[in-house]
């Protein structure tokens, strides 16, 4: 068996094309394009790459970028004030704080300063609560992007065993909840899970969101499983995921590459979330 590639890059490009076409039509009617404010503190090189990708993608589809890079010594109060300004700024539909923040800043407190209807990263308690209740709201970009990718390839989820390795509030937990809402039977695994391989071998849908190169070997994958690699690991040879791509490709039925899988969908979902917020503000319905 050779797994079919879940091609996030191509789907993300298509979604961006659709957004660009739609925004070219509606932005002149509304009188302004959508706006996304990205707040990036310090000089973490990985954050620089992510913010650059996000701003470039915004420009491609017709979303105006606000915000910028702030020095590592910027205080909690200054950042909270900046977020309040963006909360009130009519040109801004989405506010994103690029994580991780320098260790002396309280990121949770800052994220809760963002007004929930501009919280395009879906990390405010209100949006997390809506996710838990199964109500519509802004959903975290990586989990929502993964669900969109699985949906595009019409991967059946109802009644399937899904194992999510990783339980962060950014990826693992919300993704598990979304899979549950799609009627999968979900198990979370984490650093304290004994016999990880025994668990992952039962998974019809296996998600790895850990950040450890080579964590998922072919022996840990059930033949025919759908494997989604969220992990991003920087190596001298470039970016790799958590999954032994070549080995697992011979066992799985579907597999996401790194890069070109989940990362591309995360950026596309951020644009979609920003436009969803813009649409709601102007009572426009974006075609699906
Ligand atoms: P975190 O570090 O917050 O969480 C990692 C999770 O992995 C934790 O729940 C941890 O368990 C678990 N874990 C660590 N070691 C093991 C192990 N040996 N076996 C099983 N579980 C383990 O990371 P994030 O959730 O923020 O990100 C996860 C990965 O996804 C990273 O590589 C990150 O770069 C990538 N990422 C990719 C994105 C994309 O767009 N493709 C977007 C966001 C993240 P415990 O809770 O017990 O500590």
Tell me the name of the CATH homologous superfamily of the largest domain: NAD(P)-binding Rossmann-like Domain
Distance between the termini: 33 Å
Small molecules bound? NADPH dihydro-nicotinamide-adenine-dinucleotide phosphate
CATH architecture of the largest domain: 3-Layer(aba) Sandwich
Give the biggest sheet: 6 strands, parallel
Q: Indicate the radius of gyration in whole angstroms.
A: 19 Å
Structural class by sheet pairing and helices: alpha/beta
Number of strands: 11
- Listing every helix as H and every strand as E from the N terminus to the C terminus, the arrangement reads EHEHEHEHHHEHEHEEEEHEH
Strand order of the largest sheet: 1-11-8-7-5-6
Q: Low-confidence parts lasting 5 or more residues at pLDDT below 50?
A: none
Q: What fraction, in percent, of the residue positions are helical? A: 40-55%
Mean pLDDT: 96
What does this structure look like?
Residues 140-280 form the Tetrahydrofolate dehydrogenase/cyclohydrolase NAD(P)-binding domain. Homodimer. NADP(+) binds at residues 166-168, 232. The protein has 2 domains: 30-115, Leucine Dehydrogenase, chain A, domain 1 (Rossmann fold), CATH 3.40.50.10860; 141-263, NAD(P)-binding Rossmann-like Domain (Rossmann fold, 3-Layer(aba) Sandwich), CATH 3.40.50. It starts with a strand and ends in a 7-residue tail after the last helix. By secondary structure, it is an alpha/beta fold. It has a 6-stranded parallel β-sheet with strand order 1-11-8-7-5-6. Helix 1 runs parallel beside helix 10 (262-281), helix 6 crosses helix 7 and helix 6 crosses helix 10 (262-281). The longest helix is centred in the N-terminal third of the chain and has 23 residues, at 8-30. The protein contains 10 helices and 11 strands. The chain has helices spanning 8-30, 45-61, 76-88, 107-111, 125-133, 141-152, 172-181, 196-200, 245-249, 262-281; strands at 4-5, 35-41, 64-70, 94-97, 161-165, 185-189, 205-208, 226-229, 233-235, 238-240, 254-255. Strand 5 (161-165), helix 7 and strand 6 (185-189) form a beta-alpha-beta unit. The mean pLDDT is 96. The structure holds NADPH dihydro-nicotinamide-adenine-dinucleotide phosphate. NADPH dihydro-nicotinamide-adenine-dinucleotide phosphate is lined by residues 142, 165-168, 170-172, 189-193, 196, 209-212, 230-232, 262-263, 266.
């Amino acid at each position: 068996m050779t797994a079919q590639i879940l091609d996030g890059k191509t789907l993300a490009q298509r979604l961006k094309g659709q957004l660009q076409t739609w925004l070219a039509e509606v932005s002149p009617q509304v009188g302004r394009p959508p706006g996304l404010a990205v707040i990036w503190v310090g000089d973490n090189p990985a954050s620089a790459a992510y913010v650059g990708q996000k701003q470039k993608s915004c420009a491609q589809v017709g979303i105006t970028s606000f915000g910028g890079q702030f020095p590592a010594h910027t205080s909690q109060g200054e950042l909270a004030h900046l977020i309040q300004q963006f909360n009130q700024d009519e040109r801004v539909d989405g506010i994103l704080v690029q994580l991780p923040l320098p260790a002396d800043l309280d990121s949770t407190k800052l994220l809760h300063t963002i007004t929930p209807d501009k919280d395009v990263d879906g990390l405010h308690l209100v949006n997390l609560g809506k996710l838990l209740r199964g109500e519509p709201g802004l959903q975290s970009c990586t989990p929502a992007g993964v669900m969109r990718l699985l949906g595009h390839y019409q991967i059946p989820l109802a009644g399937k065993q899904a194992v999510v390795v990783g339980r962060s509030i950014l990826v693992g937990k919300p993704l598990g909840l979304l899979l549950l809402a799609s009627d999968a039977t979900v198990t979370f695994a984490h650093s304290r899970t004994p016999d990880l391989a025994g668990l992952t071998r039962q998974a019809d849908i296996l998600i790895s969101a850990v950040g450890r190169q080579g964590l998922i070997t072919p022996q840990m994958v059930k033949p025919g499983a759908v494997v989604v690699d969220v992990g991003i690991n920087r190596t001298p040879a470039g970016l790799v995921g958590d999954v032994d791509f070549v080995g697992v490709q011979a066992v799985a039925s579907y597999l996401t590459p790194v890069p070109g899988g989940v990362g591309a969908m995360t950026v596309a979902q951020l644009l979609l979330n920003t436009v969803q917020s813009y649409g709601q503000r102007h009572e426009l319905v974006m075609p699906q």
